[in-house]
Amino acid sequence: MLDGLGRPQNLLVLGGTSQIGYAIADELLPDGGTIILAGRDEDRLATSAAKLARPRRQVETMHYDACAPATATVDVLAAAAARHGDLDVIVLCAGVLTDESLLDGDTAALETAMRSTMLGPIVAVHAATTRLREQGHGTLVVLSSVAAIRTRDGLLSYGVAKAALDVYARRVGAGLRASGARVLVVRPGHVRTRMTAGLPEPPLTTEAHQVARRVQAALRGSARVVYAPALLGPVMTVLRVLPPAVYRALTTSREALR
């Protein structure tokens, strides 16, 4: 449950090895409470848990695989709630960033990427919001991307996956408004993490802790969608209405300058 100041006490990260998920957990529960990191890589989960641990902050790990059957996701949520009570915040940051050229001709690789970044996270949205609705409170934070708004050719599958997740999360969130629960969709731009290491950095590149601060500020208000950094909001408003040929020429010329 929330403390006397309305701050979360229990937080579950689905995609617990994500550096953005780590930063959000650290930002939202600075002084205590329970953080549950759920993911596939046990070694990275253990490392993150050790770094997050504080005298008044308990950190646990659980196994979670976005590609597993839906019942597995439901079981993770049920187990977390059984151990710690109501879940105040659930952070969903599962997914993979795959270069489109690596998927060319490899249908199996495409299927895996879409299960990891689209189908699995959409199932998690459904399962998480069902639990939050039953609780009557809590927030699901869904990590989307600016790629959901206007997708570059080189990240077509990733952009399509994030677009589907973004739409689904927002529509489900709209249906929660009378329940006391909430969905917050976060659309970061390029964030410096392991996932983006070695990639060219576009303008407005940001850090994981800056995304976390945007999330914290948004949870204090009533926003349902936020960009990180905030300036990406008006930028994407312009980019999304550009004719395809103009947008393609703009992104191609930008890549050529790198």
Structure write-up:
The protein is of the alpha/beta class and 258 residues long. It has one domain: Rossmann fold. 47% of the residues lie in helices and 17% in strands. The chain is built from nine helices and nine strands. It has helices at 19-28, 42-52, 70-84, 100-103, 107-135, 156-174, 208-220, 232-239, 244-256; strands at 10-14, 33-39, 57-63, 89-92, 138-143, 181-188, 191-192, 206-207, 225-228. The strands form two sheets. A seven-stranded parallel β-sheet has the order 3-2-1-4-5-6-9, sandwiched between helices. The protein has a two-stranded parallel sheet with strand order 7-8. Strand 1 (10-14), helix 1 and strand 2 form a beta-alpha-beta unit. The radius of gyration is 18 Å and the shape is globular. 40% of the residues are buried.
The helix tally amounts to 9
Number of strands: 9
SSE order, one letter for each helix or strand: EHEHEHEHHEHEEEHEHH
Please give the share of residues in helix. Answer: 40-55%
Query: What is the name of the CATH topology?
Result: Rossmann fold
Q: For the terminal residues, how far apart are their CA atoms?
A: 49 Å
> What number of domains?
1
Structural class: alpha/beta
Low-confidence stretches: 253-258
The radius of gyration is 18 Å
Q: Give the name of the CATH superfamily.
A: NAD(P)-binding Rossmann-like Domain
